[in-house]
Design goal:
The complex is a heterotrimer of chains A (about 325), B (about 350) and C (about 270). By secondary structure, chain B is α/β, with parallel strands linked by helices. Chain B has 10 helices and 14 strands. Chain B is elongated, with a radius of gyration of 21 Å. With about 270 residues, chain C is an alpha/beta fold. Chain C folds into 2 domains: about 180 residues, Rossmann fold (3-Layer(aba) Sandwich); about 70 residues, no CATH class. Chain C is built from 10 helices and 12 strands.
């Protein structure tokens, strides 16, 4: 059998590890060459801006999956946080229209997400219920909770300071995009450089061994669910700003987009494997394709078919990577 | 959300049933079961409120069941409803074709089926009360031609049409009526995108993309007001002022009326929600009694309802209306959420 | 029988003058209707190697798990340095200086050798409230320890999943040598090892012992047991059948204890 040299091996590993980025770059070049008006800064900024919500959801989802669990509740938590944000301070529709400082909605959204996350984590850790079931129940129930508060109606018209978040740009980049990038930078740092991040990988790899090593697996698991919830709360807060309010079905479908992005980004559903640098590439890949379809005016059904194929492709790629690793490295 | 809704539906249903059996109303004409396609839409929530407000006035108990956009669940609800032996079933279908089995079963059991809002052409029913979604598209096209003329001197320009979910025939009907009519104006260029699942963020994304590749868009036509809400947020974030780009939407939800008042939206084509329901109520006694209906024009909440005999049975068509800044405060628009106080006048 | 073992124990302890590092007194554990451990008592002294012997299901692993804080005993008392203690979790056991090597390896295959070596003991420094890993320091220390033990691993930045069974075991063993504390519990540590590696493992036990660390080792292999053990403790059906100084007994007697022949005779 052909044995690669050390340099070749490192090159192959590098290529395999960053495959999503190469695909993303390839797709962007392809679209830029073939689609009229696709190649412009504005389009790329839009791709980033539209990636904000699924992007932030995907961070929390990745953390939970790396730690060996699942969080299906994020989409509903996001929608609920958006609903609460609008419900507290919006001017039209079903709203309390409180005269409070509108910025208080941000801690409210974060806290709300963290509380749901805590409850998820508590049930998973203390009552030993599978995360799939617990968070599925939360996914269903919390969407309902949001509907209950507003009776299934819309809320609209956020106060000016919040609306400004959507229109502010810093050195040419929308504030939303900067928030997205900061979140990724922060959590990439946490995952790769801190004990907390290291322990998440350990738990996902072998929870028993981690527990035996004296690491407080239960507390870490609850913390990771709280982080996932809080990130969903942040996404919800931003989403309500983006749409200037909240509608009953806001954000529906984003859970599966986040799952697709995470899988495409190379996070293993088995736990313990994955990096946020891959996940953001996965998110941007989906966002670029959506944008291309919008700009081309293709029938939107294409979007779903393409996404489905992408996820399948990602999984195939993953097993291919493993085989290459086994055989040649 | 679905399971929760279902549970609530069952709970409310049970309570209503008990209430129905418990209180012997002066005029107890039995139960009317209202089959709701989804409650994730303000048109639907307001329809439910209006139906639950109107029918008890005539002596009917109302049992509302939400199918959460699932055609299979709606068929189960049909079966459950038939067991209750109601005076009538009002159907707002999730899926036109899937509902046929349920309609056949109910009518075979002697229960009249009334179709509300979502027209079914492929089978005969006892009554249909619709605004005609195609008609809404036609009215929208007229309004848009008028607005383009006002803006550009003649009916010409670039229109971005944002559909709802491409799997929903409601949006496809509007599209059909709209595109057939707007085709009369050769100088109108049309770009069409769809907001999957009627999700507002998708509409915002579309608007943002299109404004980049087609910055000369004159008017954005969204098939629901809540989509316009998200589009407005994008326009505002881009530093646009009300009127810089015209906006039109259809269905007449509260957010649309609010956008009209703020000047962002130039027109909203509403579905005559209240009139459609008052129309149902006006004919219910006759339908339950099995008496024949007379074709003709009937006054329903001040609108001219036209009753015709179609292949799918008696059809009451109510005209949709264009809402503009001039008439936005009119209480007959359901978006103002003022359920009419005028009593139902049963057809003699 | 229990009076027999108690007598043995008292003879043993009277022969030593120091306080035992660990004293197990009357520990019992039940799983449903199965009595995994019944009234188990014995002592371990600093620098002593005790071999815990017995057939499958005799209760050896259960006992180890109770000492290491993974399981809680139903009754009985554990004394550590003469003080009564309750060990509720592995982290509490570690705090006392008790290190455990389990039968099924306690390695995370998805991370590299360094991360495994420092699992739960990461070297960090504080940056804006974050505990930031000191990768270079950890790498150097891991390299050094593995070198001392004489394990050949191509790169300590390789994920453990790409290593052989022997290499994995070596990492596990290197952890107890390095982090030994005061008491090391080894549950079948040589199960996956080749001849050469086993010999090195036995040497490691000797080395640890020389540092005054007490070792409890579970093994099925009589030769291994008699090579390293100062005393042997034989368990059968959850009871202590005998505690013997290694010099005062031989593999044949131990085997007969394990299989129950001696118990039958005495009964």
């Amino acid at each position: 059998m052909l044995q690669p040299s050390d340099r070749q091996r490192r090159l192959i590993t590098f290529l395999l590890d960053n495959l999503v980025w190469f695909i993303l770059i390839f797709i962007l070049i392809l679209f830029s060459l073939t689609i009229d008006k696709y190649f412009q800064i504005g389009i790329f900024i839009n791709i980033l801006r539209q990636a904000t919500f699924v992007g932030i959801l995907s961070i929390g989802l990745s953390l939970v999956i790396i730690a060996g669990h699942l969080d299906l509740s994020i989409e509903s938590v996001m929608a609920f946080a958006a609903m609460i944000t609008a419900f507290l301070v919006a001017s039209g529709g079903v709203t309390l229209a409180l005269g409070i400082n509108p910025w208080l909605t941000l801690p409210a959204a974060l806290l709300l997400g963290a509380i749901v996350g805590w409850a998820n984590g508590f049930l998973v850790v203390r009552l030993q219920i599978s995360a799939f079931i617990v968070t599925l129940a939360a996914f269903i129930g919390i969407r309902g909770l949001g509907l209950m508060i507003t009776g299934g109606r819309s809320v609209y018209g956020l106060p000016d300071p919040l609306r400004a978040v959507a229109s502010t740009t810093v050195v040419g980049l929308p504030l939303m995009v900067l928030i997205l990038i900061s979140c990724y930078a922060l959590f990439h740092f946490i995952l790769t450089r801190t004990t907390f991040g290291r322990h998440l990988y350990l738990i996902g790899g072998n929870a028993t061994a981690t527990f035996r090593a004296g690491i407080n697996v239960k507390r870490l698991t609850i913390t990771v669910f709280m982080l996932s919830g809080a990130l969903a709360g942040l996404a919800g807060w931003l989403l309500s700003i983006r749409t200037n309010g909240a509608t009953p079905n806001l954000g529906s479908g984003m859970l599966f987009e986040a799952f697709a992005a995470v899988v495409i980004g190379g996070v293993s559903l088995q736990g313990g494997v994955g990096r946020l640098t891959g996940v953001i590439a996965g998110v941007l890949l989906l966002s670029s394709i959506d944008t291309a379809i919008n700009v081309m005016g293709l029938p939107p059904q294409f979007m779903q078919v393409i996404r489905g194929l992408l996820v399948l492709f990602a999984v195939l790629l993953d097993s291919l990577k493993l085989q290459i690793h086994r055989r040649y490295l | 959300m679905n399971a929760y809704r279902k549970l609530l539906g069952v709970l409310v249903g049970t309570l209503l049933l008990f209430a129905g059996f418990g209180s012997a109303l002066a005029q107890d004409k039995g139960t009317v079961v209202y089959l709701i396609p989804t409650l994730l839409d303000e048109f639907q929530t307001e329809s439910q409120s209006a139906i639950e407000f109107v029918f008890p006035q005539l002596g009917y108990e109302v049992l509302s069941l939400d199918a959460q956009n699932r055609a299979d669940l709606q068929l189960n609800q049909f079966d459950d409803a038939i067991e209750l032996e109601p005076a009538a079933i009002i159907l707002n279908a999730v899926d036109f074709d899937a509902a046929i089995t349920g309609i056949e079963k109910a009518r075979a059991a002697g229960i009249p089926v009334l179709v509300y809002d979502r027209l079914i052409r492929s089978i005969e029913v006892d009554f249909t009360s619709v605004s005609g979604n195609v008609q809404i598209g036609v009215i929208a096209a007229g309004e848009i031609a008028r607005l383009l003329e006002e803006r550009n001197g003649s009916p010409q320009g670039k229109v971005l049409q944002i559909l709802g979910d491409p799997g929903d025939s409601y949006t496809l009907d509007i599209q059909q009526g709209f595109e057939a009519t707007i085709a009369q104006y050769p100088d109108v260029e049309l770009i069409t995108n769809a907001a999957l699942q009627w999700e507002a963020t998708n509409a915002a994304d579309i608007a943002e993309q299109q404004l980049l590749v087609n910055p000369d868009v004159d008017l954005i036509f969204s098939h629901a007001a809540h989509l316009s809400g998200a589009v407005q947020a994008v326009l505002e974030a881009q530093g646009k002022e009300p009127g810089d780009i015209y906006m039109v939407s259809s269905n007449g939800a509260p957010v649309g009326l609010s956008l009209i008042r703020e000047g962002w939206l130039q027109a909203e084509i509403e579905q005559p929600l209240y009139a459609q329901i008052w129309g149902l109520a006006a004919f219910i006694d006759k339908i339950v009694a099995g008496e024949p209906l007379e074709p003709g024009t009937y006054d329903v909440l001040g609108l001219d309802g036209v009753l015709t005999m179609e292949a799918w049975g008696p059809n009451l068509a109510l005209p949709g209306a264009a809402i503009t800044a001039d008439n936005v405060d009119d209480s007959r628009f359901w978006g103002n959420l003022q359920t009419p106080t005028s009593p139902v006048v049963p057809v003699e | 029988m229990s009076s027999d073992s108690a007598a043995d124990a008292s003879i043993e302890s009277s022969s030593k003058t120091a306080t035992p590092l660990l004293r197990i007194e009357g520990v019992s554990k039940r799983f449903g209707t199965i009595e995994a451990l019944q009234d188990v008592s014995f002592d371990i002294y600093p620098g002593e190697v005790v071999a815990l012997l017995g057939d499958n299901g005799a209760g050896k692993s259960t006992l180890i798990k109770i000492i290491s804080g993974t399981l809680e005993a139903d009754s009985g008392q554990i004394y550590y340095n003469g003080e009564p203690v309750v060990i509720k979790s592995p982290s509490e056991a570690k705090a006392l200086g008790i290190e455990t090597v389990y039968q099924d390896l306690s390695l995370c295959l998805n991370v590299d050798v360094v991360a495994n070596f420092f699992m739960g003991r990461e070297l960090t420094h504080n940056v804006l409230g974050f505990k930031v890993l000191q990768e270079r320091e950890m790498e150097a220390e891991t390299e050094q320890v593995l070198g001392e033990i004489g394990t050949e691993i191509p790169s300590i930045r390789t994920n453990v999943e790409h290593l052989s069974g022997g290499q994995r075991q070596a990492i596990e063993l290197s952890r107890f040598v390095h982090w030994g504390g005061k008491l090391v519990l080894l549950d079948e540590p040589f199960a996956a090892l080749g001849v050469k590696q086993t010999r090195r493992g036995l040497e490691l036990i000797e080395r640890v012992k020389e540092r005054g660390i007490a070792v409890v080792v579970i093994t099925h292999n009589m030769i291994h047991a008699f090579q390293v053990a100062d005393r042997v403790v034989v368990l059968r059906n959850g009871r202590v059948l005998g505690i013997r100084p290694a010099q005062a007994t031989n593999p044949e007697e131990v085997v007969r204890l394990i299989t129950g022949e001696i118990a039958r005779q005495s009964a």
